[in-house]
Write a structure and sequence with these properties.
The complex is a heterotrimer of chains A (315), B (186) and C (404). Chain A has helices at 5-31, 54-62, 84-91, 101-104, 107-115, 117-120, 147-161, 170-177, 201-222, 232-235, 237-246, 248-251, 264-278, 282-311; strands at residues 189-190, 193-194. Chain A is mainly alpha-helical and 315 residues long. The longest helix of chain A has 30 residues, at 282-311. Chain C has 404 residues and is mainly α. Chain C folds into 2 domains: 31-151 and 185-297, Cytochrome Bc1 Complex, Chain C (Up-down Bundle), CATH 1.20.810.10; 307-404, no CATH class. Chain C contains 16 helices and 2 strands. Classes of the chains: A mainly alpha (315), B alpha+beta (186), C mainly alpha (404). Chains A and C meet through helix 1, helix 10 and helix 14 of A and helix 4, helix 5, helix 11 and helix 15 of C.
Chain lengths: 315, 186, 404
């Protein structure tokens, strides 16, 4: 009698794979738009033409009515003029601390942002003359000199005070790039900072009230409260998150979510933070997985040998 | 029948391999029963010792268990040696104050408030200065020493560390380690 | 009154009281299995192993899961996935096994259809098997509610709405099932109960029935051969193992079962550790939100074919088609009018019926998942009609089937 088992196996595998292909890769290709990453190059923004000077940049950043009027630079000992909750009620969102900005944001993006925030952030559909709304961050029209040079100087200063790439932790990258709008309660992160451990219930409630007040302002500013990102790495995946922050409009036309403007390294750090939050045991899973695979193959080999031993007499 | 029940070599070898897998999965199962990291992290309680009053039992909570804190009055300290010697037969000088914790100038009894017999919570009588466990009639004096069986030993003392005027339960300080070494507590 | 003597060994002691040797013979060493069966006959054992893994992993999930609408999502995604040692492993095993078990069930079902293993005394095996399919479906659906993500909530909403019966507007029934106007606390609690108690009890009972139904008619074989089990087993016991047409269940067939199980486990654990996404829909990693429907909603893959039979029609006809799809497989032994218990390849038109049914169900499955846009809507519509048409044709084509 001819052994038909290989043929039967081929038939089973074929129909299984065909079904898998149809309900997974094929169906998802029909459901979701797919966008390739632009590599965080920000090619739609003007290229940098001038070389910045950090010393002059410092004067501009610290100058009267300039950046530090709203932004904190805590690494340089400059506190924000208002606390996060008050800032949010005034601007809609707390202006970022600039300590790490030079490491997190792409230089080309920062250049464009200082000159025209709504354009660089891709929120001109929201802030334009027709809507009568202006972006809470004012455009920088120059301090009297060459605008391009001045902006380049400011960016150079921000880069000079920022931690070097290898010193930028995933948490720092996330907090600067995403953390003022998105909570991550699996990491105890709220929009106004990490939630401490409270001894007294009153202190905890006061903190939570602050968070809720901040969220109210934020929700009014954004139209809806930006989601908690605790397990976005599982619900959206790395590719979606990266291409989404590069250009939110291509996925969600008209969304209030701004382009984030992170550089490629910081994007990786943000992903790492989200993985630590939403897929914390991934390293364990991979190493346990390898061991189990080795074991199960050995198990299969012994099963084969046992079957052969038994069936030797049966044929 | 016979040749079937006697497994061949490969049958045994396969069984052994399967056994290794079963044991490995038992390891994962055992680990899944362990206390969670959040439970372990919450295993420390700090007590401010200046807040207690003499001969007034206060029940605190540490790792879900009641903790008896009893500040000793001068009178209690004086009679303590007596009580102990009644039980142990040793002279008062050698056993004085060994079960008590000294924070600042004051002495405190700090124990896990569960009878060492079967885990009921004994009640304190401030007039008689003694604990009575209602479950099986075990009694302890005001230092947590057994004065009437069935409890096999005095009330257990939780791991503690003296930090200034406070006591951190869950950490092992030198005073606690000494108590363990000398067998005052388990 | 039984007569007991002083035991000579522990085995003897047990033997006098529990007849363990007899049990061992009946259940294993003299439970005779045809020799001419292929690896598809090992799917039963593969299902037993998969069900065991579901049970064991489920026990560990049950220790930390909280059936509360405010806590359920984080108890799964935070406590189990981050806090519990190996919690992630139990969840991935449970999720992947819940999906793969249906693949094996379908292979098991189509094996039975192909080889005619539902006929001539084997009807109860088929019927108990289909009841198991229903019970597993209930188990899968109730389990899908528990993480209380977006897909849980909206699947709960949509599927319970099916019970309104279209124009019958049995809204009271829907609310009775939910215990609320929408899926909420009462709903989660009762589906939790169903998932961890009532349905598993039913499954275990039905597995007993399914195995029991197999004893008298014996296992079918791949050649449609009628085997005299008494005669052949005598031959085996006399020592002519090679000449006998039957083998012992244990260790003879068991060793083959275990080989198939082992190969299956290689595939299974690969999925658990390296390719689990297909079994855990990303959308369900968003917490349930009763005010926002996900852009695309679809059931898990194993329900897609019956979902697609519902979808292309208007509400009432769709519900009738759906109800038809749910019960029709149960009636297979009675709709197949041919007395031939042989592989489909030797059964004339039934051969084409088999492959047409298989392919049609795969088409329905695929169309059930893609968004309802053209040309998928039309393909789905015709695939649904084909499904119904094939079942209507079955008694006719089998009635005229020649004796094989």
């Amino acid at each position: 009698m001819k052994n038909k088992e290989p043929l039967i196996l081929a038939v089973v595998v074929f129909f299984t794979l065909a079904t898998y292909y149809l309900v997974e890769p094929f169906a998802h290709s029909q459901m979701h738009k797919h966008f390739e990453s632009e590599g965080f190059a920000y090619k739609d923004l003007p290229a940098i033409t001038k070389t910045g000077d950090a010393t002059r940049g410092k004067e501009l950043v610290m100058g009267a009515g300039a950046c530090t009027g709203c932004h904190a630079i805590t690494s340089q000992g400059l506190q924000a003029p208002m606390d996060a909750v008050t800032s949010a009620s005034a601007y809609g969102v707390n202006p970022p601390d600039l300590s790490n900005a030079g490491a997190v944001y792409d230089a080309r993006f920062l250049n464009a942002l200082i000159k025209n925030p709504a354009h660089a952030l891709m929120v001109e559909h929201k802030f334009n003359p027709a809507s009568g709304k202006t972006h809470p961050m004012p455009q920088f029209y120059g301090a009297g000199g060459d605008l391009d040079q001045e902006v380049a100087d400011m960016v150079a200063y921000l880069e000079s005070i920022a931690p070097k790439a290898d010193k930028l932790t995933p948490t720092m990258a996330f907090e600067t790039a995403c953390g003022r709008c998105h909570a991550v309660h699996y990491e105890k992160w709220t929009q106004i900072g990490e939630k401490p451990a409270f001894k007294k219930k009153q202190d905890e409630l006061a903190f939570e009230t602050n968070v809720l007040n901040y969220q109210d302002s934020l929700a009014k500013y954004m139209g809806t409260l930006p989601p908690d990102l605790s397990i976005y790495i599982r619900s959206r995946g790395e590719h979606y998150i990266k291409t989404f922050v590069e250009n939110p409009q291509q996925y969600l036309k008209g969304t209030a979510m701004p382009r984030v403007g992170v550089n490629a390294e910081a994007a990786d750090k943000v992903i790492e933070y989200l993985e630590d939050s939403g897929d914390a045991k991934r390293h364990e899973r991979e190493s346990v997985g390898k061991n189990v695979m080795v074991y199960i193959v050995i198990f299969a080999i012994f099963a084969l040998l046992w079957k052969r031993e038994i069936w030797r007499d049966l044929h | 029948m016979k040749d079937n029940s006697r497994r061949g070599f490969m049958g045994k070898a396969f069984g052994a391999v399967a056994g290794v897998g079963a044991v490995a999965s038992l390891y994962a199962m055992k680990k899944s029963w362990d206390p969670l990291p959040s439970v372990k992290a919450a295993g420390f309680t700090t007590l401010d010792m200046s807040a207690y009053k003499e001969n007034e039992l206060v029940v605190e909570k540490w790792r879900g268990k009641p903790i008896f804190v009893l500040k000793q009055s001068k009178e209690m300290l004086d009679t303590e040696g007596e009580n102990m010697s009644k039980v142990t037969g040793k002279t008062t000088a050698t056993i004085d104050k060994t079960r008590l914790i000294k924070v600042g100038d004051a002495h405190y009894m700090v124990t896990i408030g569960l009878c060492t017999h079967l885990g009921c919570i004994p009640g304190y009588n401030p007039d008689k200065k003694s604990f009575l466990c209602a479950c099986h009639g075990g009694m302890y004096d005001d230092t947590g020493m057994v004065t009437k069986s069935p409890p096999p030993r005095g009330l257990d003392i939780p791991p503690f560390k003296i930090k200034g005027n406070t006591l951190v339960l869950g950490e092992e300080g030198p005073e606690y380690k000494k108590m363990k070494e000398t067998g005052i507590t388990l | 009154m039984a007569h007991f003597t002083k035991a000579t060994s522990i085995k003897d002691w047990l033997n006098q009281r529990l007849a363990i040797e007899k049990v061992e013979k009946v259940m294993a060493s003299e439970y005779w299995i045809p020799k001419n069966i292929n690896f598809l006959w090992a799917m039963g054992m593969v299902l037993v192993i998969t069900f065991t893994m579901l049970l064991v992993s489920g026990i560990f999930l049950l220790m930390y899961y909280q059936p509360n609408v405010n806590l359920a999502f984080d108890s799964v995604n935070y406590t189990i996935m981050r806090e519990v040692d190996f919690g992630w492993l139990w969840r991935h095993v449970h999720g992947v096994a819940a999906s793969v078990v249906f693949l094996i069930i379908y292979i098991h079902m189509f094996t039975a259809i192909y080889y005619g293993s539902y006929k001539k005394g084997r009807e109860m095996i088929w019927i108990s098997g289909m009841l198991l399919f229903v019970a597993f479906s209930a188990e899968a659906f109730s389990g899908y509610m528990l993480p209380w993500g977006q897909m849980s909530y909206w699947a709960g909403m949509v599927i319970t709405n099916l019970f309104s019966g279209g124009s019958l507007h049995a809204d009271g029934l829907v609310e009775w099932i939910r215990g609320d106007y929408v899926p909420a606390q009462a709903f989660l609690n009762r589906f939790f109960m169903l998932h961890v108690l009532l349905v598993p009890l039913a499954i275990i009972g039905l597995i007993g029935l399914h195995f029991g139904a197999l004893r008298i008619p014996h296992v079918n074989n791949q050649d449609g051969e009628e085997i005299d089990f008494d005669e052949e087993s005598k031959k085996y016991l006399a020592g002519d193992k090679a000449g006998s047409k039957v083998i012992r269940f244990a260790n003879d067939f068991m060793s083959k079962d275990m080989l198939v199980v082992a190969i299956y486990l290689v595939f299974f654990f690969y999925l658990v550790f390296f390719h689990y996404d297909f079994a855990m829909d990303p959308v369900n990693f968003d917490p349930a939100n009763g005010l926002k429907t996900p852009t695309h909603i679809y059931p898990e893959w194993y329900f897609l074919w019956s979902y697609e039979i519902l979808r292309p029609f208007s509400t009432n006809i769709g519900l009738m088609a759906f109800a038809f799809a749910q019960v029709i497989f149960m009636l297979l032994p009675f709709l197949d009018r041919s007395p031939n218990t042989v592989p489909a390849s030797r059964r004339g038109l039934f051969k084409y019926w088999f492959w047409a049914m298989l392919i049609d169900m795969i088409v329905l499955t695929a169309m059930g998942k893609v968004p309802p846009i053209e040309p998928f809507g039309t393909i789905g519509f015709y695939a649904a009609l084909t499904f119904i048409g094939l079942w209507i044709a079955l008694p006719i084509i089998t009635m005229f089937e020649k004796k094989a």
